Amino acid sequence: SALSGGTVQLTGGTTSGSNAGADVVVSSGSGIATSSGAMTVKTANAGTSGVSGDLSINTGHATSGNSGDVTISTGSSTSGVGGSATISVGSGNSGVGGALTLSSGDTSSANGGAGGALSLSSGSSEVNAGGAAMLSAGSSSGASGGAL
Asked: Please, where are the H alpha helices in the chain?
């Protein structure tokens, strides 16, 4: 049978009654006069015949309240450039490239509100030109390009 490495799990404490469960915070170190420490969350490369592990970022399900938000953001800078945020999908060598799906939430109950909004916007500037917004479909040298 196949063996696997050990599991590392960080779990905040569970409470009973109406108290909230405990938070879990993992952070890098700060630099007083220099840079703060980096943080990397990743799965390891696959072996010669396997697939690399999935990475999931999820919030929990809520029965009668709102479920939690997921926020991915970079810091601003007082005298430098604000941090960039990149979401990229892997290429395929013998199969298709990975898909990227951005979707907003559905509403399914009869008394629910409108579906969630989806906004894509570029940055504004008080002095210089605003940021460009581009949306393009993939090209192909052997077939037609992708639809947009």
From this structure: none
| Short-list 110, 88, 106, 105, CA closest to 97 | 88
Predicted TM-score of the model (pTM):
0.66
Mean pLDDT by 10 residues, the chain (148 residues): 73 84 87 86 86 86 84 84 84 79 82 82 88 86 82
Which residues touch 27 (CB under 8 Å, ≥6 apart)? 39
In whole angstroms, how large is the CA radius of gyration of the chain?
22
Q: Which two tokens stand for residue 29?
A: 């170190």
Q: CA nearest 102: which of 130, 72, 76, 123? A: 72
> What's the rounded Cα separation, in Å, for the pair 99 and 57?
17
